[in-house]
Recover the amino acids of this structure.
């Protein structure tokens, strides 16, 4: 049990320190790497409480895909060269009030959640579904998501679909003058339409690609 | 005292797995070069040791004694971390590979997700190396490989769903045991082909080795690396290839199971079968390297997103409806 506690505190320490480093570090790319470290330690915490499916999905989705794109954008836009000036700029700090507002709201939300858990523990008993400890949590998740919560599940899928279509529409641009390769055309070409024998008149020549 | 004993037992088990993996990575590099040479009617490495078997060890020795050069304008911490990340990720994935019913280091519930997660983390070593070098060729190589690996992971994920539909469990041992009667390569043959090709792309093997296409990008993300750090990238890459072969043999070729449960076959120990299947897949990898020309980048992306992804999605629907119709769904 003690070993369990030690490992838990190590992971939570890493999570908190790296979360702070995300905002503090001066190089934006380093921030993203600390964000990845944060994700990884949080997924380790998930695995420690027995939610191994959630932990692995966290790793696959956030670390394996989302953070890669983050890193991509940060590296491509060359924001690495612009230093992160949250803590050292004096004049240009117009973003501080907004950030402060967001963090105050999150802080109060946390207080409400923790207060509810601390002073009204019977709230936890009002969970609609009983947890069957015999099943692995992948099975129990699956048996709930696709039956009782199918509508919510499909709704969240719709939200993702809308976001995906939006991203495609925003970034799609039709370029003219691009020669595209068509495999079918290439393969179905034969000698007849590939080669043309022309009698060239003297001093006139032939036109290609007319 | 007892806890200390368990601790050392675990370390012994880990070493018992890691050292053979590392040695076989060295041997596999030799095999790769020999197969390549065989196809091209050359001899390949044949000088150091019997049949040139110790060539890789000689190469490794050479790398160890070379100077490690760190570019002056690089981001040093990330530059040094990159090969370590690649190597570590390639090795920790072996923890869940079941070599027989009892011989597995960590028999976890979500083994296949763990494998998938670790192989999708592999892209970080490459991006970190490419970016930290602070040079154009490595950066271009890193960007290419990030896009490539993320795209092909999607289709590998969908293929894994296909297999999981037939198994009903995420545990790797369960996946192997579900193939006792019929290896999944037979009902899911198109998926096996797509998995194989995606595995080539995921491990940056030819014909999809665009991140390190030497004609365009010198050596891609490895350009600035030298000595031991380059060797670590190299070892990590081959360990990843072996891992993908192991994943393919577990998902489709029945893992440690023997093809037929008859006399000459079932005498051979179970881990041997897995190793033979891994070797078979690896020889295919090596042959592909020798006989297929490199893809163009847009062709690669088109193949991943426009052909493999829709096809494997359709196959998920087909598999699911087939299992549903004939009432073959596992767990009923």
């Amino acid at each position: 049990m003690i070993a369990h506690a030690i490992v838990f505190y190590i992971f939570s320490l890493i999570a908190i320190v790296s979360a702070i480093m995300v905002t503090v570090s001066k190089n934006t790319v380093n921030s993203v790497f600390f964000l990845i470290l944060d994700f990884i330690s949080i997924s380790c915490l998930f695995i420690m409480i027995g939610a191994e499916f959630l932990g692995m999905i966290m790793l696959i989705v956030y670390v394996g895909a989302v953070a890669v794109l983050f890193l991509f954008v940060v590296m491509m836009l060359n924001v690495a060269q612009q230093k992160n000036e949250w803590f050292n700029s004096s004049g240009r700090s117009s973003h501080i009030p907004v950030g402060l507002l967001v963090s105050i709201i999150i802080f109060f939300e946390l207080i409400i959640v923790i207060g509810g858990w601390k002073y009204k523990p019977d709230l936890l008993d009002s969970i609609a579904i009983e947890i069957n400890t015999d099943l692995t949590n992948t099975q129990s998740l699956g048996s709930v998501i696709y039956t009782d919560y199918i509508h919510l599940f499909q709704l969240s899928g719709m939200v993702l679909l809308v976001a995906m279509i939006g991203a495609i529409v925003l970034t799609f641009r039709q370029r003219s003058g691009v020669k595209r390769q068509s495999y079918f055309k290439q393969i179905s070409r034969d000698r007849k339409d590939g080669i043309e024998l022309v009698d060239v008149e003297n001093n006139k020549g032939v036109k290609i690609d007319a | 005292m007892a806890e200390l004993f368990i601790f050392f037992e675990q370390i012994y088990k880990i070493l018992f797995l890691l050292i053979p993996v590392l040695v076989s990575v060295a041997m596999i590099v030799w095999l790769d070069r020999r197969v390549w040479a065989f196809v091209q009617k050359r001899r390949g490495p044949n000088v150091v040791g019997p049949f040139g078997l110790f060539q890789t060890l000689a190469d490794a020795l050479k790398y160890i004694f070379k100077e490690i050069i760190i570019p002056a304008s690089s981001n040093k911490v990330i530059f040094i971390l990159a090969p370590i990340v690649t190597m570590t990720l390639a090795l920790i994935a072996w923890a869940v590979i079941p070599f027989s019913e009892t011989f597995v280091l960590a028999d976890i519930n979500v083994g296949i997700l763990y494998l998938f997660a670790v192989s999708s983390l592999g892209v970080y070593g490459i991006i970190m190396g490419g970016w930290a070098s602070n040079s154009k060729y490595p950066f271009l190589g890193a960007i290419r490989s990030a896009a490539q690996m993320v795209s092909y992971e999607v289709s590998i994920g969908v293929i894994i769903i296909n297999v999981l539909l037939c198994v009903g469990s995420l545990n790797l041992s369960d996946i192997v045991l579900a193939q006792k009667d019929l290896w999944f390569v037979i009902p899911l043959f198109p998926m096996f082909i797509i998995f194989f090709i995606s595995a080539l792309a995921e491990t940056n093997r030819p014909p999809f080795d665009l991140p390190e296409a030497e004609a365009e990008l010198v050596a891609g993300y490895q350009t600035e690396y030298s000595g031991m750090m380059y060797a670590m990238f190299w070892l990590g890459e081959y360990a990843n290839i072996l891992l993908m072969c192991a994943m393919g043999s577990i998902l489709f070729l029945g893992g440690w199971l023997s093809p037929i449960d008859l006399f000459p076959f079932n005498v051979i120990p179970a881990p041997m079968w897995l190793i033979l299947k891994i070797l078979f897949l690896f020889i295919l990898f090596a042959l592909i390297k020798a006989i297929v020309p490199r893809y163009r980048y847009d062709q690669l992306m088109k193949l991943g997103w426009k052909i493999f992804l829709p096809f494997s999605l359709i196959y998920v629907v087909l598999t699911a409806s087939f299992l549903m119709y004939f009432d073959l769904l596992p767990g009923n």
